[in-house]
Every structure is written in C-alpha cells, then in structure tokens.
Design a protein that fits this description.
alpha+beta, 10% strand, 364 residues, 61% helix, 4 strands, Alpha-lytic protease prodomain-like, single chain, transmembrane, 4-stranded mixed sheet, CDF_Transporter
Length: 364
C-alpha cells in the first residue's frame, strides 16, 4: 500500500456537506472523457490552477451547525438552572443529602454549557496560518472541562453522602423532596433528548456526551424518590444511601464521557465510516485500487485524507479528473464529511517502486 508520492497529485477541496452546491470548474468526471478542444483546455487549466470548493455555502453550513449548538446550550442552561434553583430551595428546607447530590449534579450539568458555548464560538473562526485546520478542536477541549465538572460533582455528592451516614439527620418536607426529584427527572430528560438529537445531527461528540450526562441526571433524580420513600417509612439512612448510589451513577457517566472525549482526542472514528469511504472510492471509474483511508473529526466536522491508485499510463489531467470524482463522491455520500484530500498514486507497471525515494523515511 503506497504511503505518499512526490510526483502524483494531492487534490484537496473543502465542501459543505450539502447535495445542492454547484461546481463551477468545468472539470470532467472520469478518465478518458473527451469533450473537444475547449473542454480539454478547461481541464488543463483546472489541473494547474490552485482552486478550492470552499464557498459561502460551506461557511453557512458550519455557522448553522454552531448556531444550532448555541441554541441548544442556551435553552438547556436556562431549564437546568431553573431546576437546580428550585431544588436548592427544597434542599435547605428538607436537609435531604440525596436531593443535594442531585442538585449539585444538575448545577454541574448546567455549567457545562459555558465551555461548550465558548467552543462553539471559537469554532466559527476562520482558519489561520497558525491554526490551519481552524478552531474546531476547541470542542474537544470543552469536553475535557465537562469531564472535570462531572468528576467534581461526583466527589462532592459522595462526600456529603458519607458525612450524612456518619452524622445521621432527619429529612423534612418529604413531599417537597419527592416533587423536586420528579421535577429534576422531567427537566433532565427533556434536555437530554434535545442535546443528543442536535448533537448527533451536527456531529458534536461533546454535545452528545453532555446529553447522556443529562439523561443519567434524570434517573438519579428518580432515585431521590427512593430516599424520600425510605425516610417516610422510618428509615432515615435511606437518604444518604441513595446519595451514595447517585455518586456511583455519576461515576459511570464520568467513565462514558471520558471515553468519548478520549476517542475524539485520539482521532478515533467509527470503523464503519472507514469501510463506507473505501466502498465509495472503489466505485469511482478509473480507481484501480484504494490505498490508505484516514478520517478524523475536527469539532463536529469530518475530514478525510485518502490515497487511490490509477493506471500508471494515465495522463496528469485524467488522473486529476479521477481524483476530483473521488472527492466529489466522498463529500456527497459520507455523512458530515466537510473536506477531503485525495492523493493519486500510479498503479503499475509490475515491480515498479514509485516511492523508492521515500523508503528510508517511512514510519512502520
């Protein structure tokens, strides 16, 4: 499998992940295609002229994704802060440590909107000569902050639960505690669905992780009902025990969120996406073989670097046309792919090593 080649073409375009944009380059869509002298001249000009598919449509698509993310964060922040405020008042009146843990968890979940909002704002900035891929990675950094906040809420909830086990205290206003627990569940479940749905639509791992966090918060809110029920039946120890169970639940959320962010930081992608990209490339006319396929997430956009092998006797113009068609199909058929770099290598003749110059530089 070839690694890279100093002479073949590297073909890179940035695209919106839309199906309705126009290609105003006049290039062909397959090798050997002849449309007269005028068409050939256009193809030659296209092959040797710097060009990009970066367009207003692509920018609008990226901005729309970030705008949707910002709307989700604003609405969910307001709902969770209101829920936490109501619960905090009842915590003071009741002394329920289980409800305190749930309140702290809801507060932490609301505050995760802050780093995410900053990340989405940064992601709107254009790429620079220093940050050549843009600022999409800010979302992954926000994910780290989210993981730290979840860990902090787990530690505080666990501390309060253990302290209450060692220093038992009666729980008051059990009816209000139960009502606050139900309100916490409803608020968190609504926020979870909203975040997860939009996060998956725009490809934001941090927003999906935050939605899963909110969903678990909802179930921990229901657990508070168990503590209130136990206390009502004459078992005051049920409240701190439920507080400990909530802490354990938060730790499971912490594990899942940390794994999600770790995968994103390590450029992990779903292997099914790689399989799909290889399938798409193999169907392009003129592609003799598919080489390496590399995918990575940058924020909530997917980027690709692929290698294809074409007939060694093919002209530069025709090889370029194959690369254009390969990139075009990837952009249109691979979900959330916004940019692709297509590298063409010569296929054949038998025994030829087109990368001999780079043999000592390859990383095994």
């Amino acid at each position: 499998m070839p690694d890279s080649d100093p002479t073949p073409q590297h073909h890179h375009h940035g695209h919106p992940n839309e199906h309705g944009h126009e290609h105003g380059h006049g290039h062909g869509h397959g090798p050997g295609e002849r449309r007269g002298v005028k068409a050939l001249a256009a193809k030659v000009a296209h092959a040797f002229t710097p060009h990009s598919h970066d367009s207003a449509a692509k920018t609008d698509s990226a901005l729309e994704s970030s705008s949707r993310g910002m709307r989700v964060l604003a609405v969910s922040f307001a709902i969770l802060m209101l829920t936490a405020a109501v619960q905090a008042v009842i915590v003071v009146a009741s002394g329920s440590v289980a409800l305190l843990g749930d309140t702290l968890h809801n507060l932490a979940d609301a505050l995760t909107a802050v780093p995410l909002a900053i990340a989405f704002s940064l992601g709107r900035r254009a790429a620079t000569r220093r940050f050549t891929y843009g600022y999409g990675r800010a979302e992954d950094l926000a994910g780290i902050v989210i993981v730290v906040l979840i860990a902090a809420s787990a530690a505080l909830a666990g501390y309060e639960a253990v302290r209450r086990l060692l220093e038992p205290q009666d729980v008051r206003a059990l009816g209000w505690v139960a009502a606050a627990a139900l309100a916490g569940f409803l608020g968190n479940e609504w926020v979870a669905r909203y975040r997860i749905t939009v996060g998956r639509q725009i490809g934001s791992a941090a927003l999906v992780a935050d939605g899963l966090h909110a969903r678990t918060d909802g179930f921990t809110s229901l657990a508070v009902l168990l503590g209130a029920g136990g206390a009502a039946l004459g078992f005051p120890i049920a409240d701190p025990v439920v507080g400990l169970l909530i802490t354990v639940a938060i730790c499971f959320v912490l594990r899942d969120a940390a794994r999600e962010i770790y995968h994103r930081l390590m450029d992990a992608v779903d292997p099914a996406l790689v399989d799909e990209a290889e399938r798409i490339l193999a169907t392009v006319p003129g592609v003799e073989r598919v080489g390496s396929v590399r995918l990575r997430w940058i924020g909530h956009a997917l980027h690709a670097e692929v290698e294809i092998l074409v007939d060694h006797a093919m002209s530069v113009v025709d090889a370029h046309a194959v690369a254009v068609e390969a990139e075009h199909r990837l952009i249109h058929d691979l979900p959330r792919l916004r940019a692709a770099t297509v590298h063409t290598d010569p296929y054949g003749p038998d025994g030829a090593d087109h990368h001999a110059t780079l043999a000592t530089h390859r990383i095994t």
